[in-house]
Design goal:
The protein is α/β, with parallel strands linked by helices and about 180 residues long. It contains 7 helices and 6 strands, in the order βααβαβαβαβαβα.
Length: about 180
């Protein structure tokens, strides 16, 4: 696929496993979309992982008071990428923030042009990444059927919000994006 970096946001066990408090019910569907895109991007793929900080500061203290199960070290099993993505993760970016846009992801984007976002949760980490990257002047493409939200309504609301940022953020599907590549 010409131009672009595929950012696979937080396809981790904590969001995939049905018994997790943070499970994204449509994780498997989003994962299927991501798997379809991986070959088209070759080595232009960055996986991200959301991690808990060693010591929450500021408003994050209240957040982790609500979700104490998540206060685990970076090597805890819940933070690992799911088995279908771990073998493809030549580059992984870890962050203790919802949004993954920052100097590290910008460096990987380089002159690739556009940032193609997939992953979970549409209404949290994908949204936070998309808005920050768009605000930095990056062309952002969100692949709607390669994302999953906390639930269907949250996914739809996040997509509607991101669509309102057009043309800085553009929504597409896996099939449409692959067709663009020819």
């Amino acid at each position: 696929m010409s131009g672009g970096l595929l950012a696979v946001i937080d396809m981790q066990r904590v969001f995939a496993e049905p018994d997790s408090p943070w499970a994204a019910p449509r994780y498997a569907e989003a994962a299927a979309g991501v798997r379809r895109l991986l070959p088209a991007f070759g080595d232009r793929v960055t996986f991200t992982r959301f991690l808990a900080p060693a010591k929450p500061e500021g408003a994050w203290r209240s957040y982790y008071d609500r979700w104490p199960f998540a206060l685990q070290p970076p090597d805890a099993q819940l933070w690992s990428l799911t088995e279908d993505f771990a073998p493809h993760s030549r580059h992984t970016l870890d962050a203790t923030t919802f949004g993954k846009w920052g100097p590290d992801l910008a460096r990987h984007l380089g002159s690739a042009g556009r940032l193609v976002l997939t992953g979970v949760s549409t209404d949290c980490c994908v949204l936070s990444t998309a808005l920050a990257a768009a605000d930095a002047g990056v062309e952002v493409v969100v692949v709607t059927d390669a994302c999953a939200g906390a639930d269907d309504a949250a996914h739809a609301r996040a997509l509607q919000l991101m669509e309102s940022y057009g043309p800085l953020i553009r929504l597409t599907t896996v099939t449409e994006l692959l067709a663009e590549a020819g």
